[in-house]
UniProtKB/TrEMBL annotation:
The lineage of its organism: Eukaryota, Viridiplantae, Streptophyta, Embryophyta, Tracheophyta. Keywords: Flavoprotein, FMN, Monooxygenase, Oxidoreductase. Pfam families: NMO. It comes from Cinnamomum micranthum f. kanehirae. Gene3D superfamilies: Aldolase class I. One of its GO terms (molecular function) is nitronate monooxygenase activity. CDD domains: NPD_like (cd04730). This is Nitronate monooxygenase-like protein.
């Protein structure tokens, strides 16, 4: 077990490509500058907009970063932009990414990270030749592909990977160094971190793991998929709405956003979370969050999040070693050479 990075990055800590533009240029660059893997939330099937977002990110960092793509939608133009801009990695989610596409990415020097929510999906990703797998537990925030908790899913995917040189990243309710260590202890390398509206951010500080819900209420018109969100008063009121209730034109307009330089109208039950530009009835908008939300105590820069993960994990592991391993270590032979070596090891200042 080690703290070294993956895929050529300093740390195996990944910024999820949170949409529609929450993981935008500013946040991705901040994570990259701190040695993490920043993944840009890509526009859907937009070549020029994707190129612009990538180049805006490059203005803020000279470090490598990547972008995420949803396979649920046709993203041919977006993927081409990512290839043309020669990003370090491409993260794909919610669907299959066959070997021919993985090979195409590799031809452009781009590594493929596939997020999955089941063992079967992981096995397909392995067969396709991906470079990294993200195991997403059902307790994760935002769109969730599976129904199994992280601690049950992660070891099964690790077993499926076996001795192949494919790092596995854990996603789902990992919010501090303790969760990081738990993932490391299984052999995973780490996970997750906003252009989010300040109101949305503040709400995250006031909810616990018992106050999230798995639902398909939001975005039914365009993408009927389960998400995990805060159980706000608005959500409690509508969570049991019949299936024909969806974010169509019969729903009232509750706000407006600018998402990747485009004006967007938000109707009730829209799937977009509030970004910094959003105005309107913010309390009636979806607020995506995982079950680890109860551990979010403050809002800090991305670099501080990564520092807390890495330094906190080192302290925890060192403490566990001192508590559980030292007393059970086999006795050291008491030869003069060993006595001298033990003394020197304990007195580093004498070197």
């Amino acid at each position: 077990m080690k703290f070294g990075g993956i895929l050529g990055f300093d740390h195996g800590i990944i910024l999820a490509p949170m949409g529609a533009d929450i993981a935008g240029p500013e946040l991705v660059a901040a994570v990259a500058n701190a040695g993490g893997i920043g993944l840009l939330a890509s526009p859907i099937n937009e070549y020029e907009v994707t190129v612009k977002a990538i180049r805006e990110t490059k203005k803020l960092t000279d470090r490598a970063f990547g972008a995420g793509v949803l396979l649920e939608f046709n993203n041919t133009k977006t993927i081409r932009a990512i290839f043309d801009e020669k990003l370090a990695c491409l993260e794909v989610f919610w669907g299959d990414f066959p070997k021919e596409m993985v090979d195409e990415a590799h031809k452009h020097g781009i590594k493929v990270i596939h997020q999955v929510g089941s063992v079967k999906a992981a096995e397909r990703a392995i067969a396709a030749g991906v470079d990294c797998i993200i195991a997403q537990g059902v307790e994760a925030g935002g769109h969730i592909a599976g129904t199994v908790s992280l601690m049950a899913l992660l070891p099964r995917i690790l077993d499926a990977v076996g001795d192949r040189n494919i790092p596995v990243v854990a996603a789902g309710s990992i919010v501090d160094a303790r969760g990081y260590v738990a993932a490391l202890s299984m052999g995973a390398k780490a996970t997750k971190e906003s252009y989010a509206n300040d109101y949305y951010k503040q709400q995250l500080l006031h909810y616990t793991e018992n106050e999230t819900d798995r639902t398909d209420l939001y975005g039914r018109l365009t993408w009927r998929a389960f998400v995990r969100c805060l159980n706000t008063p608005f959500h409690k009121k509508w969570r049991n709405a019949p299936d024909d209730v969806q974010n169509d034109e019969t729903q009232p307009i509750i706000g407006y956003s600018t998402i990747y330089w485009k004006e967007v109208v938000l109707r009730r039950f829209a799937g977009q979370v509030a970004n910094r530009t959003t105005v309107g009835e913010l309390e009636d908008m979806v607020m995506l969050a995982g079950q680890g939300v109860g551990l979010v105590k403050d809002i800090v820069p991305a670099a501080e999040v990564i520092r807390r993960y890495v330094e906190g994990a080192k302290a925890i592991i060192q403490g566990l070693g001192e508590k559980y391993l030292e007393d059970s270590a086999p006795p050291t032979p008491t030869t003069p050479e060993n006595e001298k070596w033990t003394w020197v090891e304990k007195c580093k200042c004498c070197f």
